[in-house]
Amino acid sequence: MDYQFPEGFLWGGASSGPQSEGGSTEGDRVMSEWDYWFSKEPERFYRQVGPSVTSDFYHKYPEYIEKMKAAGVKSYRTSIQWSRVIRDCDGTVNEDGIQFYNQVIDELIRNGIEPMMCLHHFDLPLYWVEKGGFENRETAYAFARFAAVCFGRFGDRVKYWTTFNEPVIIPETGYLYQRHYPAVCDAGKAAAVGYHVQLASSLAVAEFRKSGCDGKIGIIINLTPTYCENPEKAEDRRAAEILDLIFNRSFLDPSVKGEYPVELKELLEAEGILPEVSEGDREMIRENTVDYLGVNYYHPRRAKARTTVYEGPLMPEKYYEPYEFEGQKMNTSRGWEIYEPAIYDIAMNLKENYGNIPWYISENGMGIQDEEQFMGADGMVEDDYRIEFIKEHLTYLHKAIEEGCNCFGYHLWSPFDCWSWTNAYKNRYGLLRVDIYDGCKITMKKSAHWFRKLSENNGF
Ligand code: BG6
């Protein structure tokens, strides 16, 4: 074995409630922002495939769990949909939703798969969207009440909790780049939303501490290490630093260290968009840091100082330009750079600057368009590119672990093909293929067999 991982290392898979469950009107579930957006603007979604069925996990979860087990998945990270568990702004609990998640958690445990539950994966119930979503501070308190219900109902069996998945995506794509609802471009609102999301996460951590649950609570952050074109040039370094502050440290620092970077405050102040802080917020954030981190890693960022004046509406763009270079590896289906050494850089950053906090890879994966072109005569997808992608990333993770980083698991996005926001089923990520035009028939890809060996051998 060239790359042996520490004993007990969690080889798992990650998905989310809204991207896998479907059954969007069943069990008295109420509308979420995605159901609503699809009903209003279906043309925004790839081939107009919306979130109502997705991978039909709602009905087929026993089969999914059985097949994930066959693929060597030892832990499954998904999310509990707020819109399935809480019916309204008053916090009325939906017992059907509770029963569904109880069944899923029990079935995972029966199959020897560790359930890891996240409480928010880009999905807000419509009743809070109508009240302004995270623009409204009240939503943060409502989130903490929802979290408390989940700790109370599932905390006896779920030992790994996370508050938010990729919290920065909420302001980034909803309030700057217009890829998620409400698709506006307003840097002031983005800053306020980001702040309220952090507050919501800290309030939920506080609820967790009160609940007496014996598990651990964390947050999942998508880290995009930012490299500058010429490290010798102070302006290039500054451009990368600004992106790092906005996209990485805006959640990493308050979640792990309990405070925002001074440089971020100065930046937002200079822009005139520093969010309003209420009495007690600082203490709430300082006293409720996380036990561990989930790290989603897909791609780095590349920055150099602007060579032209930017007059558009996007705040970060004022400060930088992206750069490309010869030999840059791309996942052309997704348009993301593939840069494996960044995993090592992330690990060293967490070790050196964040107290070597325990963390795991909560997402990493390879989305491929028209994957059926790689199907062999026997109907199996021969996804060698995915196996290579995983191996190459694991090589750098292994090196970081050898050098003392505190990583306890690797979760592939995703154990099975699942729906993706406006991209719907354009890019397939799974170890298991899901045929959405054939009743969500589930078959193993070549990578599922390989992943099973990886997990059994605890290395490759
Ligand atoms: C992550 C998200 O950023 O990337 C997932 O947490 C998402 O929800 C995944 O599906 C892959 O991105 P995409 O857009 O190709 O589905």
TrEMBL record:
InterPro entries: GH (IPR017853), Glyco_hydro_1 (IPR001360)
Cellular component terms (Gene Ontology): cytosol
Signal peptide: none
One Pfam family cited in the UniProt record for this chain: Glyco_hydro_1
Keywords: Glycosidase, Hydrolase
Entry keyword annotation includes Hydrolase: yes
GO process terms (BP): carbohydrate catabolic process
GO molecular function: beta-glucosidase activity
Keyword Hydrolase: yes
Family, similarity comment: Belongs to the glycosyl hydrolase 1 family.
Name of the protein: 6-phospho-beta-glucosidase gmuD
